[in-house]
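step=encode ok
step=design start
structure_in=
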């Protein structure tokens, strides 16, 4: 039998408020919880605004004698009060309002103290039409998940009336969100939820699962109660954060929740209302007739049967097997964000209407796909949807549609995505060739490290890459000659020397055995890239009478390109014996000028070229302005048109090859001019 409020306590309740409520302009040191942007449910927002109007910093219950001592319940079982009973003093002669309706109230199994905020909430729910509508709506929904919640709490040895924490948090809406981004019936923020086993991913948000969230909330509240010793402090910590409450207790040197709640800046304003609201809701629920709720039409409990299905199965298929409405099945499984069990899971418990369980058992073996039509794939660091689509012979659009991805939605590393199966991967021309990676001259190995190469994708930055591979950002820049002020460009390759404990299976990387490594500025580097353009790179020794214009005509190359390749002015006077580097079509190069075959296997997978000094050593005579102008005029008059294999230049710039949407690499001079590779 539940305790009732003795008549003697009525007089005590009339002498509330040991002192007026203190100022609550400051909300404590901080709230510690991680906030995540999200849409706030309209119901929670409306109540929050009404509370601001109701409790807007004014004294909650005005009594004629503000110096009178706060009165606390002094009899009843230990659960009724959170402190030792004390004998009340005589009540004042007059009370500010008639509280006779409190006589004989049945109390919940959580502590009750007749604080002024608790009384104000009870009056709000009883006398204010807006408050009565709110508590009516909440209590009408209490039996939706009430039996499940109470069974879970009882099994965990917790007070069953902790259910009213969920009422205050969400109004028993498993999909509710707060303005701070907390979600679910018990309003976990993402970080705290994951600490208690509530996974949040692209596919699931277990904060929205009524059963699992209740277990997590019970564990959390039990831990807080064990730590602080009273349910009032446990509720406060659940709302404001464990660390923030602990700092307040130490600052004010008091572990009495009700004392802290009335101190200036003692607790956040929202927390003061939160605890009082839980107590008031529990009282109303046990005494509906006192609040005009005796005609309440409660919703029937939500019931379900649980069936096991593989990962990656759509709820639409489950509904078809059960002969159930698709929307009804989805409503029973609010944690499945994409209407599909998580790909890659060995099995997943799905709720279906209980009357459909027998039909599901008969039909599932026939309806479930004999072979998977979708394959789960985990996205690696540096891997894009385009990479995934190309590897599996599908399109990026198909993957986005299958996984319900918005066009601008970013996908985190480790996200499991579905891709269609049964198609052969498409290969573009040359795609199966060994990748070529260019690196600056430098170390090829570091003791105790593995050398790998990472391809930059859009949005990458040095800090993010360094954190993932657990290397120093400055070392990464040094290994690759990266300008700290410049942006990384998609398609660049970065070499990294990583520790053995770094899990490289989570990243899209190449090892030296999986690619061709070219050292920037080496003979092999230039030979490879010009070979990709259908040209030979060779050295030409200047003869008597040669000019840049004549040489350009002979080998089908613009003077501007010759000047750029050899880092000289177009007006440079050539002397016999000078050496030029020339790129030309193979048919234009005499056999005696063709370079010898490369030594070794530098262009094979695992091979690596060494740096050799290339380019000319020319004596550049400074001619007069008239001579330079004459040379330019002669050049323009006699220069041949570009060959068919060479695209036109713009403003004298050397041609750049387009290959698969990426520009051909252009040699970059080193920082030290004395080490310039021409």
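sequence_out=
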């Amino acid at each position: 039998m539940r305790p009732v409020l003795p008549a003697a306590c009525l007089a005590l309740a009339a002498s509330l408020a040991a002192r007026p409520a203190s100022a609550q302009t400051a909300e404590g040191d901080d709230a510690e919880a991680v906030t995540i942007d999200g849409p706030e449910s309209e119901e929670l927002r409306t109540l929050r605004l009404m509370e601001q109007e109701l409790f807007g910093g004014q004294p909650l219950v005005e009594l004629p004698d503000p110096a009178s001592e706060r009165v606390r319940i002094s009899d009843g079982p230990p659960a009724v009060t959170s402190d030792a009973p004390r004998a009340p003093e005589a009540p004042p002669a007059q009370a500010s309002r008639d509280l006779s309706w409190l006589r004989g109230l049945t109390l919940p199994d959580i502590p009750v103290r007749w604080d002024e905020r608790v009384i104000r909430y009870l009056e709000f729910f009883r006398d204010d039409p807006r408050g009565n509508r709110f508590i009516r709506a909440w209590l009408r929904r209490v039996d939706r998940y009430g039996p499940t919640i109470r069974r879970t709490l009882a099994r965990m040895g917790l007070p069953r009336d902790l259910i009213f924490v969920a009422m205050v948090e969400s109004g028993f809406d498993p999909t509710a969100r707060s303005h701070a981004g907390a979600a679910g019936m018990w309003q976990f923020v993402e970080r705290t939820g994951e600490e208690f086993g509530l996974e949040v991913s692209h596919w699931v948000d277990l904060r929205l699962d009524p059963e699992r969230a209740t277990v997590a909330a019970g564990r959390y509240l039990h831990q807080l109660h064990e730590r602080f010793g009273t349910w009032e402090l446990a509720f406060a910590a659940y709302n404001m954060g464990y660390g923030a409450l602990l700092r307040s207790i130490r600052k004010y040197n008091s572990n009495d929740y009700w004392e802290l709640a009335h101190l200036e800046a003692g607790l956040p304003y929202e927390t003061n209302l939160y605890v009082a609201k839980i107590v008031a809701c529990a009282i109303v629920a046990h005494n509906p007739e006192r609040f005009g709720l005796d005609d309440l039409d409660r919703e029937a409990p939500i019931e379900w049967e649980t069936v096991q299905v593989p990962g990656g199965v759509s709820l639409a298929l489950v509904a078809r097997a059960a002969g159930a409405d698709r929307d009804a099945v989805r409503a029973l499984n609010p944690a499945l964000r994409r209407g599909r069990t998580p790909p890659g899971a060995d099995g997943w418990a799905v709720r279906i209407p209980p009357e459909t369980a027998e039909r599901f058992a008969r039909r599932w073996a026939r309806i479930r796909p004999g072979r998977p039509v979708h394959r789960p794939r985990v996205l690696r660091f540096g891997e894009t949807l385009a990479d995934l689509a190309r590897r599996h012979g599908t399109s990026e659009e198909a993957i986005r549609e299958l996984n319900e991805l918005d066009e601008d939605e970013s996908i985190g590393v480790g996200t499991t995505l579905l891709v269609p199966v049964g198609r052969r991967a498409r290969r573009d021309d040359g795609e199966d060739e060994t990748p070529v990676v260019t690196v600056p001259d430098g170390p090829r190995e570091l003791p105790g490290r593995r050398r790998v190469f990472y391809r930059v994708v859009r949005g990458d930055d040095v800090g993010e890459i360094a954190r993932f591979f657990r290397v120093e950002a400055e070392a990464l820049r040094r290994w690759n000659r990266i300008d700290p002020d410049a942006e990384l460009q998609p398609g660049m390759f970065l070499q990294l020397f990583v520790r053995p404990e770094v899990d490289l299976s989570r990243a899209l990387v190449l090892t030296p055995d999986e690619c061709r490594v070219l050292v920037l500025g080496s003979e092999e580097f230039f030979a490879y890239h010009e070979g990709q353009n259908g040209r030979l790179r060779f050295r030409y020794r200047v003869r008597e009478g040669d000019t840049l214009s004549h040489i350009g005509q002979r080998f089908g190359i613009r003077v501007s390109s010759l000047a750029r390749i050899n880092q000289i002015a177009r007006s440079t006077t050539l002397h016999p014996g000078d050496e030029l580097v020339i790129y030309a079509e193979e048919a234009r190069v005499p056999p005696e000028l063709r370079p010898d075959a490369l030594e070794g296997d530098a262009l094979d997978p695992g091979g690596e070229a060494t740096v050799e000094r290339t380019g000319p050593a020319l004596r550049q005579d400074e001619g007069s302005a008239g001579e330079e102008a004459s040379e330019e005029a002669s050049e323009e008059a006699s220069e041949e048109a570009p060959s068919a294999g060479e695209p036109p230049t713009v403003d004298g710039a050397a041609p750049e090859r387009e290959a698969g949407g990426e520009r051909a690499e252009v040699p970059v001079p080193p920082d030290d001019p004395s080490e310039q590779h021409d």
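step=design ok
step=annotate ok -> Residues 235 and 275 are 6 Å apart (CA to CA).
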